[in-house]
Write a structure and sequence with these properties.
By secondary structure, the protein is α+β, with helices and mostly antiparallel strands. The protein contains twelve helices and ten strands. The chain has a six-stranded mixed barrel with strand order 2-3-8-5-7-6. Helix 1 packs across helix 10, helix 2 packs across helix 10 and helix 2 runs antiparallel to helix 11. The longest helix is centred in the last third of the chain and has 37 residues. The chain is elongated, with a radius of gyration of 29 Å.
Length: 378
């Protein structure tokens, strides 16, 4: 069998033009598939950036909330009731809203303002510069150093700006695990200051962050909150809810899926046609092998090996090309959202195996019909 596979390899790479055409077709298809799905994975990750960065185990919200950016205010009694539930270690409010700040150069920049509980500062980011206690200082804000940090002029500690005619001072620079999705810088402050500076609706509590005493208490907390007409979600459930919203209730998921399917069809058509042409041009060689006693099973193994070798080589080249492009793009565009994940690679691997399987099937059918008599007669 080793000799048969070695012969299949030499037969495959002997015609460099056909071999290159096969590789280019699959590489291009894999590149498009991984690129599209990586963009979608990056969008979903950044859509949940606030949930990931704050890190609360349980989030309480209005049932109509689909994304963390579109919060609906809740009355104060929800917080009081939550704190009285057995199994709740503590519960704190979270403020989340958009605002417009005026920079030192006179330009205006939209920002996202996160208001932390005044007492505990639960959900605070990890500071790179400054002290977290300074957030209590007059007009104190913490800026997040992420991909959007430059839009604020890369302010350091002591930098000033205006927020709704109020003076604001940067007292800390923080790092977070994930940047936001919509290209908007993020500021942290206390919830009381956020409510004072930003005009808001009647209810200002966007979310209630809960720390349960143990994971076993979470179902009971969910049940109690449901009696109030609100919903309690774990961090993972909230991230899943946001992902489902972008996948199925916006055009983003449909467009990415369509582009991925088109990439698959392109790769299948190019590789299938090229591989079939390769088989046709080497029919004489396969017929000669059959004439000297090579079994049909061995010919099938040869074709499967050739298709699989080309598919996996194209997979590696396509993933490498996509990874290199994302790396270069992030160097030039810090807010570029694409990221390669294990699920993206698994999906590309499965699609490449399907391409290899269909291409092999086309070749196997043609080779098994060969009669050595017809080859030598020609």
């Amino acid at each position: 069998m080793k000799g048969i596979l070695r012969l299949a390899y030499k037969l495959l790479v002997n015609d460099r033009a056909k071999f290159a055409a096969l590789l280019v077709g699959i590489t291009f298809a894999v590149f498009l598939m991984v690129q599209m799905t990586s963009m979608f994975a990056g969008v979903l990750s950044r859509a949940s950036s606030t949930v990931l960065n704050i890190g609360a185990k349980v989030w309480i919200m209005d049932p109509a909330v689909n994304t963390v950016a579109n919060s609906i205010g809740m009355p104060d009694y929800v917080l009081d009731y939550t704190r009285s539930i057995n199994g709740v270690r503590f519960a704190v409010p979270l403020y989340s809203s958009g605002a417009l700040v005026k920079l030192q150069n006179g330009t205006f920049q939209p920002v996202s303002v996160i208001g932390l509980d005044d007492t505990s500062l639960y959900g605070r980011p990890l500071l790179k510069q400054g002290r977290i206690e300074d957030i209590y200082a007059e007009n104190g804000f913490i800026v997040v150093e992420d991909a959007e940090y430059g839009k604020l002029g890369r302010p350091g500690i002591g930098a000033e700006f205006e927020l709704n005619d109020h003076r604001a001072v940067i007292v800390g620079v923080a790092g977070v695990a994930s940047s936001g999705l919509f290209g908007i810088p993020t500021l942290y402050t206390t919830i009381s200051r956020a409510q004072q500076y930003i005009p808001s609706t009647r209810y200002t509590t966007a979310y209630i962050l809960v720390e349960p005493k143990s994971p076993a208490d979470i179902p009971h907390i969910k049940s109690e909150i449901a009696h109030l007409g609100y919903v309690a979600l774990t961090r993972e459930e909230f991230i899943y809810r946001i992902s489902q919203y972008y996948k199925y209730r916006t055009g983003l998921g449909t467009n990415i899926l369509l582009m991925t399917v088109i990439s698959f069809i392109v790769g299948l058509s190019i590789s299938g046609q090229t591989f079939y042409t390769f088989i046709i041009e080497n029919l004489e060689k396969f017929g000669a092998l059959k004439a000297i006693g090579t079994k049909g099973r061995e010919l099938v193994w040869m074709i499967l090996f050739q298709a699989t070798f080309v598919a996996l080589t194209g997979l590696g080249l396509g993933v490498g090309l996509c990874t290199a492009l994302i790396f270069v793009a992030r160097l030039r565009l810090p807010d570029y959202a694409a990221e390669v994940t294990a699920s993206n690679l698994l999906m590309a691997f499965i699609m490449v195996l399907i391409i290899a399987g269909i291409s092999s099937y086309i070749g196997v059918r043609r080779v098994l019909k060969i009669e050595p008599f017809d080859i030598f007669r020609g």
